[in-house]
Amino acid sequence: MGRALPFLIVLVATLVALIDCLSTDRDDVRGLPKVLWCLVILLLPVVGVIAWFFAGRPLTTEQHAGVASAGPRRRPAKPLAPDDDPEFLRGIDTSRARDDAELLRRWEEDLKRREDEG
């Protein structure tokens, strides 16, 4: 078990780095194209894993705040939930206004019908 432990550590770190690389959005990968990062991680297990976590992985919000904006512009983050998405909220407001207008129209018709009957 003593000699297998370093191998297992390298294997697990390589798998974690590879899964992280594959699950990262292509536009967020830094340094190299995503395919090359996968090859580097697989062909150079120790060096590739370290390089991925320090040079290829997307910057977190805290790290990104400290970096000068000299590099390529990053696209805005995708909304995490529907209520964070302005387009989704606009769609709700529009459909709700239509529903409210239809409801008001039916109420007015009903009120007019009741006035005519009484």
Automatic annotation (TrEMBL):
Organism expressing this protein natively: Dactylosporangium aurantiacum
Q: What is the lineage of its organism?
A: Bacteria, Bacillati, Actinomycetota, Actinomycetes, Micromonosporales
Q: Record keywords: Transmembrane included?
A: yes
* Membrane-related topology note: Multi-pass membrane protein
The chain's coiled-coil residues are none
* Annotated localization: Cell membrane
Q: Which Pfam families match?
A: PLDc_N (PF13396)
Q: Which GO terms describe its cellular component?
A: plasma membrane
* Keyword tags: Cell membrane, Membrane, Transmembrane, Transmembrane helix
> What's the protein name?
PLDc_N domain-containing protein
| Source organism superkingdom | Bacteria
Alphabetized InterPro entries for the sequence: CLS_N (IPR027379)
Region: Disordered, residue numbers: 62-91
Q: Where are the transmembrane segments?
A: 31-55
